[in-house]
């Protein structure tokens, strides 16, 4: 007797789109961004409309709506001349395209990290997954980093990280010590992007340069802020790169610190938690 073979349910690839709106309606959408990109490539609104595709009137209306809501001109038009005139984008419009595509890419990265769902969907499961993806952490110190080097020291791996500021500039270096299993499961490689988390109670701040110790990070800076408490004080250490190292120091030791004075923050390399979004 023939037996039928059950096929696994089809999985849907999650795709997202972005629309930026004002109370008067949409300003930017995928089709409008594609219109701007086509104008940049073709140098003509008429040819760009055919590329999208849109009717010339729809393209004109979309461009007019974007211009009305934009704080700066998006296009510059020229008429006549040897080339017969045309339309080109302003520097502001090019920046707007880059911003939109970066937002779109970031959104898709989040969707790609969610497990695929059955084609019919499962709203409760989706809400649970999204909540997990947007969870917050209690660690006061959260740094974007790049992997500068990896070294195996006999059953443990030292990961040297360059802290990266909001402009993408690498600054101070710290070391995180993790297991080889963690390094493999995270797929760590030189130049890889990570986030480093360090809880404030794990950080010590002193007014005198501490003795260097193996497995202990040491960062120089200046005291930016003191927040007195009955047993512990919150201390913000301003680093040369402009970033801050937050600490929670016993009151007896924190009272020796003064705002603006040089100080040193230290923490163990095995207290650094690494987070990867790959």
Main attributes?
278 residues, alpha+beta, Arc Repressor Mutant, subunit A, OB fold (Dihydrolipoamide Acetyltransferase, E2P), 2 domains, five-stranded antiparallel sheet, disordered N terminus
Could you please describe the fold and organization of this structure?
By secondary structure, the chain is an alpha+beta fold. Helices cover 28% and strands 34% of the residues. The chain folds into 2 domains: 20-114, Winged helix-like DNA-binding domain superfamily/Winged helix DNA-binding domain (Arc Repressor Mutant, subunit A), CATH 1.10.10.10; 141-275, OB fold (Dihydrolipoamide Acetyltransferase, E2P). It has 7 helices and 16 strands. The strands form 5 sheets. A 5-stranded antiparallel β-sheet has the order 9-8-7-10-16. The protein has a 5-stranded antiparallel β-sheet with strand order 11-15-12-13-14. Strands 1-6 form a two-stranded antiparallel sheet. A hairpin with a 4-residue loop joins β12 (216-227) and β13. The longest helix has 23 residues, at 91-113. The radius of gyration is 27 Å and the shape is elongated.
Q: What is the fold-level CATH name, i.e. the topology of the largest domain?
A: OB fold (Dihydrolipoamide Acetyltransferase, E2P)
In terms of structural class, how would the helical and strand content be classed? alpha+beta
Please provide the ordered H/E string of secondary-structure elements. EEEHHHEEHEHEEEHEEEEEHEE
Helix amount: 25-40%
Q: In percent terms, what proportion of residues is strand? A: 25-35%
* Major sheet size, sense and barrel closure: 5 strands, antiparallel
Give me the CATH architecture of the largest domain, please.
Answer: Beta Barrel
Classified by CATH, the class of the largest domain is Mainly Beta
For the CA atoms, what is the radius of gyration?
Answer: 27 Å
Shape type: elongated
Number of domains: 2
CATH superfamily of the largest domain: RNA polymerase II/Efflux pump adaptor protein, barrel-sandwich hybrid domain
Per DSSP E runs of 2 or more residues, the count of β-strands stands at 16
- Uncertain stretches: 1-11
Mean pLDDT: 82
| Total count of helical runs of at least 4 residues | 7
Q: Span from first to last CA?
A: 48 Å
